[in-house]
């Protein structure tokens, strides 16, 4: 396993409690849309065993042509040790990255794509949408639906309806409207449904989609294959 120690180039406050950390790109390092990595803080690999409390699985919210690895995360006042340390890091400080992989690349199957997310989960979808804008081939249209009760919606410069690009974006702040919209979207029985959020959020979305007749193979989760049976019917999740 290769570990890259890299510096923070820039920190942006996206909302009162969400930050994006822009990191250096190591030489020869690349990734595809929908990718995630393991982000580790100094001291995580000191001693006989790694300190897992200093490591987190994070989505990459940028594309390589943006010349930085973007990590967008929510940091509340009451937070974990990892988030507390991260909050105090400054430009020039070092972090480590390793194990980069994408479970949710943009599927180009001439099917409409629906991006369903909660809060900062939208960070996973940002590079997917940008990639679609750059190369829309074999993707008829994309619809994004995000729920965030704080109403501090993310990336509104990108996630806004653009009819010329066949892209539609909706933000809602309550579950009733959110699930009503999912039911309307799921009238497309051939679409591909990407879901990002907490495990409970995934399970609730999957339940609604399955009840509406969407098949498990049409549902994309940011989970490794070994975890899919925890969320989707086992006999159909291969």
Task: Describe the protein's architecture and organization.
The protein is α/β, with parallel strands linked by helices and 238 residues long. The chain has two domains: 4-102, Beta Barrel (Elongation Factor Tu (Ef-tu), domain 3); 113-236, Nucleotide-binding domain of ferredoxin-NADP reductase (FNR) module (Rossmann fold, 3-Layer(aba) Sandwich). The protein has four helices and eleven strands. The strands form two sheets. A six-stranded antiparallel sheet has the order 4-3-6-1-2-5, with no helix packed on it. Strands 9-8-7-10-11 form a five-stranded parallel sheet, sandwiched between helices. The mean pLDDT is 95.
Domain count: the total is: 2
CATH-assigned homologous superfamily of the largest domain: Nucleotide-binding domain of ferredoxin-NADP reductase (FNR) module
- Second CATH tier, the architecture of the largest domain: 3-Layer(aba) Sandwich
Number of helices: 4
Average pLDDT across residues? 95
Strand content: 25-35%
Question: At the first level of CATH, what is the class of the largest domain?
Answer: Alpha Beta
Low-pLDDT parts are none
Please tell me how large the radius of gyration is: 18 Å
Number of strands: 11
Task: Give the CATH topology of the largest domain.
Answer: Rossmann fold
Helicity, as a percent range: 10-25%
């Amino acid at each position: 396993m290769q570990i890259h120690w890299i510096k923070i180039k820039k920190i942006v406050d996206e909302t009162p409690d969400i930050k994006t950390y822009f990191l250096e790109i190591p030489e020869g390092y690349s990734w595809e849309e929908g990718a995630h990595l393991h982000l580790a803080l100094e001291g995580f690999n000191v001693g006989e065993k790694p300190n897992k409390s200093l490591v987190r699985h994070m989505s990459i919210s940028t594309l390589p042509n943006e010349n930085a690895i973007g990590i967008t995360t929510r940091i509340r006042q009451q937070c974990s040790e990892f988030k507390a340390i991260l909050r105090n890091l400054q430009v020039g400080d070092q972090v480590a990255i390793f194990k980069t992989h994408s479970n949710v690349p943009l599927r180009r199957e001439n099917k409409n794509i629906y991006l369903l997310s909660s809060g900062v989960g939208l960070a996973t979808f940002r590079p997917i949408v940008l990639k679609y804008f750059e190369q829309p081939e074999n993707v008829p249209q994309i619809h994004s639906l995000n729920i965030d009760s704080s109403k501090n919606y993310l990336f509104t410069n990108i996630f806004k309806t653009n009819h010329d690009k066949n892209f539609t974006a909706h933000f809602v702040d309550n579950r009733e409207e959110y699930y009503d919209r999912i039911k309307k979207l799921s009238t497309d029985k051939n679409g591909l449904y990407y879901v990002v959020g907490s495990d409970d959020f995934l399970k609730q979305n999957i339940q609604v989609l399955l009840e509406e007749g969407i098949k498990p193979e049409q549902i994309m989760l940011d989970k490794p294959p070994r975890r899919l049976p925890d969320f989707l019917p086992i006999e159909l999740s291969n």
